[in-house]
Each structure stands twice: as structure tokens, then as C-alpha cells.
Amino acid sequence: MTIEFHAGLRVRLKSNPVRAGVLSGEKTGNPISPRWQVIFPDRTDFVPGLALEPAPEEGSNPYDDMRKLRFGKPRDLRSALTHARLGGKLADLIYSLYTTNTDFYAYQFKPVLSFLDSPSRGILIADEVGLGKTIEAGLIWTELRSREDARRLLVVCPAMLQDKWKQELADRFGVDARKCGAQEAVEVLEHAAGNSRASFAIIASMQGLRGLSDLPEDDDEEQSLAARLRRVADDSTGDDAALDLVIVDEAHYMRNPETQTARLGQILRRMTNNLVLLSATPVHLRNSDLFHLLNLVDSDSFPHEWSFDHALQENAPLIRLRDLLLQGKPDVEAIGATLDDVRGSAVAVRSEALQFLLASPPSAETLSSVSHRLALAEQIDRINPITKVVTRTRKRDVHERRVVRQPIALRVAMTPIEADFYDQVTAAVRKYCRDLDMAEGFLLTIPQRQMCSSMAAACRSWSRRSSELDDEIDQILWDAFGEDASLDARARKRPNADSLIAQLARIARDVGNFEALRRHDSKFENLRDQLLAYWKTNSGAKVVLFAYFRDTLTYLAERFAEIGIDSVVLMGGMDKPAALARFRATDGPRLLLASEVASEGIDLQFSSLLVNYDLPWNPMRIEQRIGRIDRIGQKAARIVILNLFLGGSLDERVYVRLFERLRIFERALGSLEGILGEMIRVMSFDLLQHDLTEEEEAGVIEQTCVAVEQRSRIEENLEQEAGRLVAHGDYLQHRIAAARELNRYVTSEDLQSYVGDFIGEYCQGAQLVRVGEGDPALWEIDLGPPARAAFADFLEKERLQGKTRLAIAASGRQPCVFENVLKRGRIDAESISQYHPLVAFVRRRLEAEERHRHAVVSAVRLPGDAVRGVGAGVGVHVFAVTRWSISGEQDSERLAFEVFRSGAPGSLSADDAERLVTMAVMQGLPWPAAHGQLDGDTIGDCFETVMDALDGRYQEYTAGAGRENRDRVSFQLDQVDRQEAREIQRLQEMIGRLRQQGKLRTIKANQGRLAKIRERAAERRARLQNRREVRHESMLVCAGVVLID
To answer: Is the Cβ–Cβ distance between 209 and 182 less than 8 Å?
Structure first.
């Protein structure tokens, strides 16, 4: 069939049906086979006629449809809105909401929103222990998958946390991540560089990668792993970044810029546009650790340590204005005075958005509205970019399922045999400590800790240890004090403990009697009685016991086995996932015996009783232990913390005089974590270096307690001051609550309807059959030969082969469930979520068919009790939904809802309009009698009023978006200049060193890098300048009438 091309004909490319335009009528080339001029949305081009085909008709005029009461199916409303939402760019949608296998906690979405607003595309999540930083990072990754089709994820964490990350990503986010060593990680990154279609999630350890950061910049060995990693970093900029997201867990290991791990962080930052750091580092402005982490997140905004003060001083009036707006009762006079201060600030000169706000300040009536004040506060925080780089939630601020901690102190009186052994060992320890410096005194606290843990286990350990002392010293140090004791902080060498432990071995043989201490083990007997009584009233309850020393745990396992209580022992070097799986099993052992190091990174919130069989003197370690069960997901309203200590021992005095007074076991430490460790360590030295009386010991502990309380007040003030660096949580919580209430997310039912409509209309020979009930219901899908072949081509082009069975040739009906939740895959059926390739394929095909270019117009009926609280009364309501698209430095979209009641003045609020349309989509019934019951002219006139209102809102929206975009481009241009200057300075300094060394070949290579840096910076400036002015479009998505009866 011959196609008659003419001016004004809408055509599209046969090879890319999404690419559509209008013929101008101009043609050139061979008259028999000419090229036709096509006016595409973004440019004009001449295209061979053989490559073109007429685009499908767009349909009739929605204004005409409304006036003539031509209504389609109500089901089409849901399809139209789902299609708009699946585009992945709606600013007011939270795509990760309810799509992950996690419980909902509103505060966990605060980092998601702050990250999306961050111009640096990086964030430090500094929540306290146990609030779910891993989940928050996973939610950010889920959001990026929707918004940017992100596919390349790298998680860097301590080696002991790799298994936890692998399990969490699979179970909660449906991500099949693999652990890899340094070589495999480098190979993956080399393959990913510049290849945005690559798809992977890898988990690498800090220990494995940090050695690759030591390569000198002038290294001639080009094929070493370090050189290859650095080359990937050098070649990664903007669109050429090797990774879509890097997550660094326990990021405080990167706080010291002189360490390998910190240098690794700098290399990784150059490989990605998006960075998430996780750390419980207290947030206050006198903390250099915080500065070094923020420098990693956003080196341009925080180039120097003094940049804290500079940035905060410059933005102080804005922060004061924000905080005044968020007060319960607005102080109009103070707000006016602060607005005057803002007018004189440096940021007001640079920000067009702020200048507009100051030109039309809020009235007293506006300030009386909570929603208006929240909107103004959010606008101010958007103007102030530094508030998007840190987010912190403290346990005391979380109201959802707050857990009460109930500590129980169990004082155990020593038997005469135990007291004699304790006194003789203590005397020997003090004798050796008397003339030693602090480093060795620190080491000598270990025997004291072992005795307080278990005298019988310590005696047996020392008796066996004399022949293998040297091999075990490091393990003793690590078990006792973790990384802090691995090296002497000043001498940087391992302290020598041989003589002391050899002496202890002699004491154990001379005065210790393991069998006697075992028979008279008062501590174990008290614990045994406590647990048996607990299990009598809590049958099957899981109990977690912590002890510092491996020998204590081994001994306890033996003793419990003797009375028929099976236990799981978890120590360093063991198969942690297998041990935890055995403990978690319903029919598994009721008791977990865990060491200090092995406990890190495990979640045990299914238990509500924790036993501290020995007491770390460092409260940070106590908090880490409690944090294993006091964390998100703990279902018990109260957790019990049973603390055992020997009466008359130093442990008892530390517990009663320090821990109870500071309420260490009852509350999270918060900002105290960073300071308590050093203070308690100094106290430990004082207690053990000198032969003190009991009263003198009490004085040392009391002095420490007073110092901690005083420092605590200082830290609290500093953290409150740092609130100026963190985006305020009130309006973030408001946005999260609105997203939930207004159903701003895609449901499983939306997906089933969306895919089902496509299969029914476009897939010849396809079948979608419901074969099983349940939640979710079981379906079988056969796309049919044509659609299956097209789907296979789509998978190949997008490099998604192997992600689904639905494209396998002649595969027949495949079992599936529509479940918009990311989690570990099912065995019996394929789960279809919004991230499934089939959904992307359907959306792409519908775009090609231009199915949704013409707005859906429907008539729906709703019962009055379904819309209670919406603000819409009984009667006929005319609605319209438009999609507003903004293209600038960032591309974004939003759906705008407008509703007028026919025959009544005024419209519903924007939120109520969205509520009503959402209810119509989800609960609405067909209204076939609408054509006979409505007056067409009345409905048509009302619809034009609706569209006029939307047009007015659209003008305001695009004007504001333009101002914010120009501010953002100016900010980004400034960052490009700073980054270029910093990179050039680094390379020029290196070239200078190379010239002195006579390495001419390497100089030439680095001169090439200099040219590349300048070229890339010029390209980025050009791209940003092209995006300074926004391009925008408003498109009607759906419209119609809703009868509330």
C-alpha cells in the first residue's frame, strides 16, 4: 500500500516508533525515494520516506468528549495513571514506598528524600545504632532503580559484614549481590566503566580494597590492580561513571585522611555520581571526623575544615527563618526581622529563588497556616544545599514501636575458692602494672577482664597457654578490645604480654584448681537458675548471651550441654550465616553464645532477653551488644538486659557507680558514643596501674562519672547546634505521610491491571489466566509468539537476558504473581514488580503505540461513605489530571489534580482533589447512565474552568522551577570550576615530582590527563549552560466526572 505523505501528517520512525514528529512538506534527494523533512519535538531532520510510517491517530478532543459526554471505561483511568507513574520521574512519588520487603517506618524515608534533593548526589546517614541504616541505603538504591534505571551497585563494608549485606539485599530488596575480592572487583569495574547497560551488585570488603589505594601516582606498573583501579577512577566523570551507586558501611573507618581506607574512599567517589555513607558518627561541628566524611560526600561544599563555620555562618539567617517557620506558634515579628537579615546575606545575592521569595514575603494569614509554613520551610531548605548532605535520626526521636529497656543487675557472691583465686591474680596484676606505662597497663587489663568473665574458664585457659603464648596474644587483644587494642596508638607496636601471661600460667598452676572452680562456679549457677525460670514462663523464647572471651563461651557451652540445654556458639572464624540460621530456626537451640567480634553486623531482634555474662567497661561495646536486639523489627514492647557481675569485684563498682548512674543500659548513648570510650579507657588504666584501696577506686570511678556527665552536656549542645547542617524532619515527615495517604506509589493491583490491559489489546494469541487464589493470586501468562519475540528482542537490547522466563520460545503459560515487593525470588512462580522487565517492555510498547497520548475520559460513581474526610460533598464533580514535565539540570515530572463540583463555586484543595481521583480509580464503579443524567454544556463549561485553574497553577509551577533550576545550574558551575582547579593542581604537583625524578614517559601520560580534565570540564559547563533555562510541557493524562451519591 502506497503512503501519501503530505505536510502536517504525523509520522514515526519504523525502527523506533517512540520517535514521532510532523511532516513539514519539504523533501529532498531522489524524487523516486525522497527524504522528507520531519519536525521532531527536539529538532528537525530529513528522513528517508522508506524509514517512515504514519503515526496512529491520537483520538478525539477531550474538551469535545466532555461536552458531548463521550466517556470511556473506568478501568482506563487506572491504566492511564499507572502509565504516568511508571515513568520513574514523578517528584512527588516515593517509588520505594511499599515496594521492599521491609516494615514501614516513616523516618527511614527521610534519607531518601534528602538524597534526591541533594545537589552533590551524596549523603551521610548518621542514624544511631539499630535504626536501620542498611534499609535506608537499600531504599535509596530502590529509588534510583526506578528513577534512573540504575543497575551498577557497589557496597564496601568491613569483611565481617559482607554476609549480612548479601542477605539483606536479597531478602529485603530482591538484589542478587555477590561477594568479591579485590581482583574480581577491579575486573567488574573495568567492564562497567562507560557501560551504563551493565548490570551487577557486588559487595567488597574494606580490607580487600584498601591496599589498592597505596599506589603512588607516578607508579610505572600499569597492570597492577592498584593502577587499574586508579585508571577506572581517572576515566570516570559524569555520564562515564563506572558505578550508579556506591554504599560505604561503617564509613567512620574513612575519617582519617592519612589511612588507606580514607584514600580508597576518595578513589571510589570519583567512580560514581551517587554516594551513600553509613556511620553512627555523632553529628556536631567540632568533630573533625564529621568534616572528613562530608568532604568525601561533597568536597566542593566542604573543602576545608573551617568550611563548616563558613557555610553555616553564611546560611545562618536561612536556618533561623526555617526554624521559626516550624515553631508551633509562629512569631510573625521575629519572622519579619529574620527576613530582613536574609535580605542582607550573601546567599540572597546568589539565589534567584530566594530573591523572589523576599520580593513577596508571606502574609500573616499565610503564616497562620501550618501547611503553608511547612511549604515555605521546605522551599528554604531547597535553597540551602548544605542541609541535604547529612541526615541523622536518634532513637529518642523515633515514636514508632519505641522499645523500653529493662536492665536487671545480678550480683553474684564469690565462693571462698573463687575469692582466693581472684585476690591472688589481682595482686599479681597490680604488681606488674605498678611501673609500666599506659600502653602496657592497657594490655594488662585482660587478665582482670577474664576473671570477671569466668574464673573457671580463665584458670583452664592460662594453665594451657604457656607453650603457645605468642600465637594467642593478638587473639586475646582482639577478643578483649577489638581494633582499639590491635596497636599501641603511640608506639605503633604490639605490646609485649609474654612475661605477664607466663606469670599467670604459673599462678593458675600454683593456686588455681579448675575442677574446684568449676564445682563452685557461683556465676554460672545463678545464670542457670535465671534462664530455667525464664523458659518456664516463656517456652521456646530465644536468649542471646554475650561474653568477651572464647574460652568463656566454650566453657559455657559445655556446662549447658551437661544439663541438656543445646546452644549455638558464634565466634570469629565460624560460619556466621549457618550458626544464625540454626539459632533462628523455630526448632533450633534456644541459646546463642556470642563473642564480641562475631556479634557485629547481626540482627537478633526476634529475641527480647540479652545476657551480659561479663561487662565491657567501654559503654560503646555495651550499646553494640544491646543494639543486636534493640533495633527496628523488635516486636516486644520491653527487652530485658540481664547483667551479671561478681560481688566485691571492680566490675561491681564500675557497674553501680558509673553505668547505673549514667543509665547506660536504659538509653541509647547517642552523641556520648564517641567520647565514652577514651574516658573509660583512662579510668581502666588508673584502676589497674596502682594498688588502690576500695575507697580510692570509688573516687576514680566517681571522677570519671562527673567528667562524663559534664562532657555529655557539651556534646548535646554541639549536636543541637549541628541541627543547622541537617534538613529539618518535620516537612520531610509531612511529605512521607502525604505519599502514604494519597497513595503516591504503584500497587500490585495497578500492575496487574496495566499488564492485563496490554495483553488483552496488543498481544495476539496471548493468555493471562488466574489459576489460584491467595494474596497475591497466582496467574499464568503466555505472551503469544509475536509479543514473546518482541519481548526477547527488548531483553537483548537492554541486556536483561536471564531476568525472566516469559520470553523463552514456545514456553507456554508461565506461573506468575503480581507483587510489587522486592524480595528473594519465589520458586513456584515469577514475581512481577514495577522493576520487572515485562513492565518496562509494556510501557515502551505503549509509548510506541502512542496509547496514552490521548487523555482518558471516564465517568465513575462513588458511594458517599467512601469519601468521608475528603471535603467533597454529594453531587457531580468534574476532574482533570495533568502531567507537568520539567527538563533542566534535573528532569522531573509531577501529576497535578484539579476538581470542581458542578454548579458550585470554588475547587477542592490540591490534596483533596488527589484523594478523590485516587478513590475513583481504586474504588469507583461504572456510571453507564451518566450520558442520560448529565447536561453536556454544564459539564463542558465546568471542565474548561478546571483546565483554566490547572493552567494558572502550571504557570506558577514552571516559573518557580525555572528559578530553582537557574540557582542549581549556578551552583553546579561553581562546583565544576572548583573540581577542575583541584584536579589540575593535583596533577601539576605530581608532574613536578616526576620531572625531578626524570620519568618523562609518565609525565607525558599525565599531561594527557590534564588536557582530558580541561576538556571534560568545558563539556560539563557547556551542558549546564544548555540546561540553564528549563523546557517544560503540560499533558492531560485523564479527565472525567465523579458522582458521589
So the answer is: yes
**Amino acid present at 857:** V
Can you tell me whether residue 90 is helix, strand or coil?
strand
Q: Residue 813: CB partners within 8 Å, gap ≥ 6?
A: 767, 769, 780, 781, 782
Phi, psi of 321 (to 5 degrees): -65, -45
Length of the chain: 1045
Rounded Cα gap, residues 271 and 229, in angstroms: 10
Whole-number pLDDT of residue 436: 56
The DSSP code for 784 is -
Provide the CA 843 distance to its chain's centre, in angstroms.
27
Of the chain, the percentage scoring pLDDT greater than 90 comes to: 21
Are residues 711 and 679 in contact, defined by beta-carbon separation less than 8 angstroms?
Answer: yes
The letter for the amino acid at 11 is: V
The predicted pLDDT at position 388 comes to 74
Give the strand order in the sheet containing 830-832: 767-772, 778-782, 814-818, 830-832
Alpha-helical runs (H) found in 391-454: 416-433, 438-443, 445-453
Give residue 915's Cα distance to chain centre.
29
Question: What percentage of the chain's residues is helix, strand, coil (to nearest 5)?
Answer: 50, 15, 30
Q: Is the dihedral of CA 951, 953, 956, 957 positive or negative?
A: negative
Query: CA 388, 674, 159 angle in degrees (round to 5)?
Result: 80
Mean pLDDT over 1019-1045 rounds to 89
Whether the CB-CB separation of 970 and 300 falls below 8 Å is answered with no
pTM of the model: 0.74
C-alpha separations of 25 from 3, 41, 47, 50, 928 in Å: 14, 16, 12, 16, 44
Torsion over CA of 680, 279, 106 and 161, rounded to 10 degrees? Answer: -100
In sequence order, which residues have a C-beta less than 8 Å from that of residue 444 and are 6 or more positions away? 429, 432, 433, 436, 497, 500, 688
Strands 10-13 and 20-28: antiparallel
pLDDT (tens digit per residue) in 426-456: 777 667 666 555 444 445 566 777 888 898 9
Q: Tens digit of pLDDT for each residue in 848-894?
A: 776 666 788 999 998 877 777 677 778 899 999 999 998 888 788 89
Which amino acid is located at 713 in the chain?
R
**430: nearest Cα among 454, 415, 417, 448:** 448
Contact 676, 618 (CB under 8 A): yes
1010 within 8 A of 983, measured Cβ to Cβ:
no
Looking at residue 15, what DSSP letter applies?
Answer: S
Query: Which amino acid is residue 362, in one-letter code?
Result: P
For residue 666, the 8-state DSSP code is: T
Residue 137 CA to residue 868 CA, distance in Å, equals 37
Can you tell me whether residue 591 is helix, strand or coil? strand
Torsion, Cα 206 209 211 216, to 10 degrees, reads -130
Neighbours of 702 (CB within 10 A): 14
DSSP annotation of 518? H
917 within 8 A of 881, measured Cβ to Cβ:
yes
Cβ pair 966, 356 in contact under 8 A: no
Q: Which three cell numbers stand for residue 220?
A: 610505572
- Compute how many other C-beta atoms are within 10 angstroms of the C-beta atom of residue 928: 10
Query: Which are the contacts of 958, defined by CB distance < 8 A and separation ≥ 6?
Result: 884, 886, 1030, 1032
Task: Give the Cα-Cα-Cα angle 609, 612, 614 (nearest 5 degrees).
Answer: 165
